[in-house]
Design goal:
mainly alpha; 13 helices; globular
Length: 281
Amino acid sequence: MHSPLEIAQNYVEIGIHKVRLSAFKMLVLGIFAGIFIGFAGIASTVGSATMENPSLARLASACLFPAGMAMVLVSGSELFTGNNLIIIALLQKKIKLRQMLKSWSVVFLGNFLGAGFVAFMVVYGHTPDLLGGKLADSVVNSAVSRVNLTFADSFIRGVLCNILVCIAVWAAFASKTVSGKLLMSFWPVMLFVLCGFEHSIADIYFCLAGIFAAGEYGISAQGLTFGSFLVKNLLPVTIGNIVGGAGIVGVGYWLTYLRHTPGFSAPIEAEQEEIDIAEEY
């Protein structure tokens, strides 16, 4: 098991590696991560659509959604929310601000395309026909509930969500085995879904799927438009994710473990292992 100090040191090297990827690789790996999160989104909806008890329905969704992080973790991809931790390398002055912003932007675009692709294919492949039409209603209702949150609520839920997502990434780096990484990443992701916090990339899938399903199935969706999705959901949630992931977890752990730490160097034994999986998040 890697100590928190080792994780912080290793993530500096990982951040350097991530920003040095070509824009093409960032985009493609971002698309894959968006696809994985989209699959987790539809699975979590299917698993809870027919449950009458809201608490049990949310628990079922929370237990299924971490499959998305598992795919991101072991298959190799770039997820915007986890990549907020690149700020650690910036604070160590190992990368430049423009490099970090380029990485975030290209990966976010890839995530959007990947999650949107799954939303389109799920709806127009008529997966919502499952469960006697209840799944279609659930897909639309999930999107409607997100765009009808206030800007402040969406922002705050975005902050809380990405604290947990980045802790999931951080905890996964503590383990040296695949099974350990999956186990450690499961719990924080489960918690953010259970508590109703908002993840920007997941919301891309949920809201686009809701928009597509409302049109395809003729379901009333009050306030759900592409514009309301962008302005009332994606914008505040994304800002909140950055604050929670980069501002709280990234900056907080940098202040704790790396600022004024003498003799900084990434542990040799751990360094290559972590660099090899640098594209996983």
